[in-house]
Amino acid sequence: MSEQIDRLKPELIAEHRLHESDTGSPEVQIAILTKRINHLNDHLS
């Protein structure tokens, strides 16, 4: 699971970052956590 999320992280960061070097803003963190939650939900359904 984490491998799939790790592969998507750069894309999620690029899509939600507030500036060029942003990797930790709330928007980025929420996007990553939402992807992880959705992946777990799909796995458990």
Give a brief outline of the structure.
The chain has 45 residues and is an all-alpha fold.
Describe it for me?
The chain contains two helices and no strands. The protein has one domain (2-44): Helix Hairpins (Orthogonal Bundle). It has helices spanning 2-16, 26-44. Helix 1 (2-16) packs antiparallel against helix 2 (26-44). 76% of the residues lie in helices and 0% in strands. With 45 residues, it is mainly alpha-helical. The relative contact order is 0.20.
**CATH domain class:** Mainly Alpha
| Share in β-strands | under 5%
Q: N- to C-terminal separation?
A: 15 Å
Helix content: over 70%
Give the rounded overall mean pLDDT.
Answer: 92
General shape? elongated
For the secondary structure, the number of strands is 0
* Helical stretch tally: 2
CATH fold name: Helix Hairpins
Topology, please?
Blueprint: H1 2-16, H2 26-44
Helix pairs in contact: 1-2
Features:
single chain; 45 residues; mainly alpha; Helix Hairpins; 2 helices; elongated
